[in-house]
Amino acid sequence: MAGLIPQRFIDDLLNRTDIVEVVGARVQLKKTGKNYSACCPFHQEKTPSFTVSPDKQFYYCFGCGAGGNALGFVMDHDHLEFPEAVEELAKRAGLEVPREDGRPGQKPRQPVDSPLYPLLSAAADFYRHALKSHPARQAAVDYLKGRGLSGVIARDFGLGFAPPGWDNLMKHMGGDSLQEKALIDAGLLIENAEGRRYDRFRDRVMFPIRDSRGRVIAFGGRVLGDDKPKYLNSPETPVFHKGQELYGLYEARKNNRDLDEIMVVEGYMDVIALAQQGLRNAVATLGTATSEEHIKRLFRLVPNILFCFDGDQAGRKAAWRALEACLPSLQDGRRARFLFLPEGEDPDSLVRKEGPDAFRARISQQAQPLADYFFRHLMEEADPATLEGKAHLATLAAPLLDQLPGANLRALMRQRLGEITGLGNEALGRLANAPTNDVPPSDFAPSHHDYSPSHPPYPGERDDWPGGQGRKQQGKKQWQDGDNRKGDKPWQRREPPSVRAPRSGAGVEPPTLSALRTLLHHPQLAQKVEDAGHFAAEDDTYTQLLVALLESLQKHPQQNSLQLIARWHGTEQGRLLRGLAEKEWLIRQDNLEQQFFDTITNLADRQRERSLEGLLRKARHSELSAEEKLRLRALLSRSEIPAFPGPAGT
C-alpha cells in the first residue's frame, strides 16, 4: 500500500509490543533474573550472551554487540525493510497500518516528504527528453557513445542531458515561487545570496539516482565542458541521504532475481560500463566512502560483497575503509573480497579493454578474501620479521578482529594472527578485550563495549536527521580532516563523538554528551527548555543531535526513550543513543538536572557570543540592516537571555 506510515502509529505500536514475545517467537529464551537470555541469533556461539530486557524493551548481545528494540530486531532477524517490519509487528498486534496519502486537509507526518518525488520524476523526464531532442544534445550523445554505451543501457539507467543555460529546467517546470522553492528543496535549483534562482545542473550528462522502489531521489551530473567539479551530485534533501544510498542497486536487483554477490565500485560510469558488458551486479557509493550502513544494506540482500577499486593509493585507502566498515557485519556465512585493478585502470576502462570474460577471470583469480587482505595490509605497516613488529601487529589486529560477529571466522583469524606473531590465545584475548573507556558498566552492558561499533565519517557527508531538518554536520568534516593527516595509519584514526564516546579518563564525558544521556533517561526535561534555536547553529555533532531530540520531544512530549531511539534506528546517531540508553546513569537526580541546564545555558551563551562576533565583523565592513542593528544592540546589552528556568528550585 502506498503512502507514509504516521509516526504516531509507530510510537503506539512500539508501546503495544512486548519485545520478549517478539524475540521469543523466533528465539528460545530462558529467564535469568529480571531479564531473558539465549544464544545470539546473529552470530554462532555456545554460551548464551544474548539478553532481552522486558523493563527497557531492548535486546543486546554481549558477544557481537547487536542490540535495539522490537522493530529493529524484526528488521535484522527477518531481513525486512522498515515498512515491512512495521507491517509484521502490526499484524501481530491485530492492527492495520494507516498510511498518509496527502489528501487535501490531511497533515503529513513530515512537511517535506510528499511533493519531492513527482518533481524529481518530472526532472528526470525532462533530462531524458533533452538527450533525445535538444539542439545542444550532440556533445552528450558523442560522450556516451565514446564510452561504448548503447541506447538500451542508456534507457535502463534513465540517462539524460541537462542543456547549457541557467534556467532550462526552471522554465520547463514552470510554476510560482512556491513551486521554485520546492525545486530548491529537491536539489534541482539553487538560490544565491542575492535571491536569484537558477538550474543546479547545466551542460551535463545526467545520471538519475533511484531508491529501492525505483523512485528518482537525486541526480549525478558529469560535466561536458571545462566547468568544475567534473561530477556534481544532488545535495542532501529530505528524500536523499547519500551516506545511505547506492547507485545502481535498484537496477542490479531489477535485472537479477537471484543475486548472490554485489560488486562495489567507485563511480557511475563504472556501474554502467560493467552493465553494458553483461555484469549487472555493480553498485557505487555516491561520493562517500563505503559506510557500515551500506554494508548492512548489502548483506541484507546478498551473502557476498566484492569490492573493486583502483590499484593506486586512493583506491587502497578506500578498500581499507571498506574493510573496517565490513567487520561488524561479517557473520559466519557472509563473505567479502577485494579486487585491485592495474595502475591507471578503473572498471570502466578495463572491462572495455579486455572484455567481460577476461574481467570475470580476473575476479576469479585475483580477488583477495577479506582475511588475506587484512593481514597483508597490516603486515605492510608492522613488519612481522622483528619482535617489535610482531608486537605492533598484534596490537593493531586484535581489537579489529574482536569486532567480528562470526565466531568461527573470528577464531580462525585470531589463530592466523597467533601463527604470525607467536602469541597464544590468552595474550591475544587480553589485547582484544582491553578496556576502551572508563564509563561505569550497567547491569545491561559490559564495560569494555563502546557505545556503538561503527565507522569514522566520510569527507563531505552530512545527514538530515529526523527532527534535525537538514542541519549540516560540519563537525564531521573537521574530524575527517584531522583523521587523515599525512602519515596517519588507518587504525590511528580518531573516531568522532557521533560514533563513539571519547576515551577520556575517569569516566569524564563532554557536557553535551552528558546532556544527551540525561535527556534520554529524563525526556520530561525538554519541556523546560524554551527554545533550542538559541544554540541550533552549533556545528558539534552532539549538539546537533541534542537539538534534534529537544525539538522532537517538544513536538511530541509523550515520547519515551524507546520511541526516541526508534526514530533514529539504523543510523550512526541511533547507535549512539542506544548505547547511551543501555548505560545506567549513576549521578543523583538533582545534580544531573543541574548539569543538564548548565550545559544548555553554556551552549546558548557560546552561540550568543558567536552571533555577536559575526555582527561586529560585518559592521566593520558594511552597513547592518535595521533588524541586525536591533539584534546587535540586544547582544551588546546582554538583554537577550534565553529563558531556561533550570531545575526546580534554582
UniProtKB/TrEMBL annotation:
| Cofactor binding annotation | Binds 1 zinc ion per monomer.
Write out the ranges of the annotated region (Disordered): 95-114, 431-510
Its keywords, alphabetically, are:
DNA replication, DNA-binding, DNA-directed RNA polymerase, Magnesium, Metal-binding, Nucleotidyltransferase, Primosome, Transcription, Transferase, Zinc, Zinc-finger
Boundaries of each Toprim domain copy? Answer: 260-342
EC number(s) on file: 2.7.7.101
- What Gene Ontology molecular-function terms does this entry list? DNA binding; DNA-directed RNA polymerase activity; zinc ion binding
One Gene Ontology cellular component term attached to this UniProt record is: cytoplasm
What Pfam families does this protein map onto? DnaB_bind, DnaG_DnaB_bind, DNAG_N, Toprim_4, Zn_ribbon_DnaG
Domains: entry comment: Contains an N-terminal zinc-binding domain, a central core domain that contains the primase activity, and a C-terminal DnaB-binding domain.
Q: Which HAMAP family match?
A: DNA_primase_DnaG
NCBIfam families to which the protein is assigned, alphabetical: dnaG
Output this protein's name. Answer: DNA primase
The species this protein belongs to is: Geopseudomonas sagittaria
